[in-house]
Design brief:
Layout: E1 3-8, H1 13-25, E2 31-35, H2 42-57, E3 64-66, H3 71-84, H4 92-101, H5 108-116, H6 127-146, E4 150-154, H7 163-166, E5 171-176, E6 182-186, H8 194-204, H9 229-238, H10 240-256, H11 274-277, H12 280-287
Parallel strand pairs: 1-2, 1-4, 2-3, 4-6
Antiparallel strand pairs: 5-6
Helix pairs in contact: 1-8, 3-4, 3-5, 4-10, 5-10, 9-10, 9-12
The structure holds iron/sulfur cluster.
Iron/sulfur cluster binds near residues 128 and 131.
Length: about 325
Amino acid sequence: MSEHNVLSFSGGKDSTAMLLLAYERMPDNLQVVMADTGNEHQITYDYVEYVSDWMVAKGLPPIRTVKADFARQIDGKREYVLTKWADKGVPQEAIDRAAAALVATGNPFLDLCVWKGRFPSSKVAFCSQELKQFPIINQVQKPLLDAGDDVISWQGVRRDESLRRSLLPMNELKQTFENGSELWNYRPIIEWTAADCFDMHKKHGIDPNPLYKMGMGRVGCMPCINCRKDELLEISKRFPEVIERIRNWEQAVKSASKRQGATFFAAPSDDSEWSATQTIDVFVEWSKTKRGGRLYDMFRMQNDGPVCSSIYGLCE
Ligand code: SF4
């Protein structure tokens, strides 16, 4: 029975620092995997390539990319829409529009939302699990475990990121399988600060992801559903094409939804008016306001807003 170190890499400072630590400790037994959500900025894709090239130069295997695929689920949903929605009183026009929209594009983030008929939110946060955790488990960890080997899943979480993460142990046996193989979670930078992570970059002469110097507090999806107000403003100024892409995605997901409504940033409550009006453009306008903006005073997207609550360290 062998043991495999599988390290989840996002292109952010924490997973890069963890990768460098893993290189120091066990360069001969290291697999680095990035789950491509389809909602990353090109700068992050370029950064992944930069780190991967560094690894190859050091004699390590390159970073492996995995992707979720929702084509089967979308086909099933289209069938359901065509055969069941009429019985539920959905108007034919909405059925036709949804059926036409339920076509897989190959972009995991968009396809996931089209399938679900909605965008994820911090309350219904299915994105990290569906786009990152499951592809890494199914495409990388499971084959190793099925072969009877043990997997150590390296996760770049830090205690000072959130209350939930502050309670995590450094080592944890996640599961023992019938064939005797074991899946372990290992969080070697759990006690580190953000400064420690940047110091690790310096030590190895690796640049951090350039997005940090462009006003982004976290690196991952662009935008993330947990994006801060000031980050959204920066994105809209620097990368208007990202806003345009989200605008198009809102239309696509809206068409596929039963309510014919979907917005990238979720409503603070179950507000049926919200989905019709609160588009990405409304949020961009709000991000330009100095304090809150009266409509969103109670909204979560403040500058000290939440981080992804996933405990797997797949999202910063
Ligand atoms: S929590 Fe944010 S970064 Fe993570 S998958 Fe969801 S949108 Fe992407």
